[in-house]
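Study the following:
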Amino acid sequence: MGLEIGQLVSSKAGRDWRRKYLVVELLDDNFVLVADGKTRKISKPKKKNIKHLVAHPVKAAEIAEAIKAKRKVTNQQIRMNLASLIAMTEKREEGSSNNG
């Protein structure tokens, strides 16, 4: 699937179905750790199988850079970046649905 750190994903299976997260760590070819800064804090991210995730084509560059540079990332930063990415994807989906 080719997920990246900082990428916006949403869950398509489990009790967190449709919830949106940011990828905070790549564990291996099948699993990643995700956080949303609210129910899943950066200190205790959720392990998810990538088969159970929908990848969105947007990424939180600020979060990705901080994690790669091993700088501290706060839950507030995760929430703020997540909110702006969600708003961005909803605008895209709204614009594409008006075309047909």
